[in-house]
Amino acid sequence: MRPRQVILGIVSMAVAFVIFVIPFLLVIFTAGKTAADASQIDFTPPVRWQFWQNLVDVVQTRDYQLLLAYWNSTVITVGAIAGLVIFGAMVGYVMQRRDTRLTRALYFVVLSGLMIPPAVVPTIWLLQEINLFKTLHGMILIQIAYGLGFTVLLYRSFIAAIPRDLDEAAIIDGGTPLQIFFRVILPLLKPVTVTIIVVQAIAIFNDFTHPLYYLPGAENVTVQITLYNFQSQFVSQLNLLFMNILLITIPPLLVFVFFNRQIVAGMTAGGVKG
């Protein structure tokens, strides 16, 4: 390995450490301090660790609101991911296999969904008309709608590498369109499916803006909204505020750490094969 490459690698690791590791350590240190020590906001370990007590206090705040937020965020994430995978794969399959005016128009609509910003007020009006405003079901549909464009394009790119001979062989064997899709095509989409699940799950779980607009109400709180609600309550107790930040950061961080290789593999495969 050349000296220049070694130096560049060391510099990159140092920059990554400063940008990602040091802020995370600051959150951990502050979350384990007492209220008096945390008010200083300095990069030093706690003199007396109070990690467990701070964790209990945050969880018990506002009648265990954080646990309710975890449940709501999990329901929204799981429901939206299921819809994105099924509908995204189906639409991507049809768009790639059928080159018609309708599919070309649909492709334009998908691209428009990525480029045109969402309109909040008309969306709220629509949700109110169909009685889905302030409901988890409505929030799931919103997340599916906002993430469907990216999902369809990724699936369409990946499906382009699957030979049409598989479809034709399944048709000769008497398979219906749904059987061909679920038994032949969908199992081959595992790499890109894992990528979509991880990327979209992290984005949906960490979403703050959409639940704030479309899911008001104390009973509909999500994990990111708890941080917004706790800021005023814990303004003089930064140790509890940072503990809340730590608790809502750990799940997406663990998902990214354990599935990082699958994310890169799925994105690369989709890009190369398309």
TrEMBL record:
Chief localisation class: membrane
SUPFAM superfamilies membership: MetI-like
Alphabetical UniProt keywords: Cell membrane, Membrane, Transmembrane, Transmembrane helix, Transport
InterPro entries assigned to the protein according to its UniProt record, in alphabetical order: MetI-like, MetI-like_sf
One Gene Ontology term from the biological process aspect of the record: transmembrane transport
Domain ABC transmembrane type-1 positions: 70-259
Cellular component terms (Gene Ontology): plasma membrane
Protein name: Carbohydrate ABC transporter membrane protein 2, CUT1 family
UniProt organism field: Wenxinia marina DSM 24838
Upper taxonomic lineage: Bacteria, Pseudomonadati, Pseudomonadota, Alphaproteobacteria, Rhodobacterales
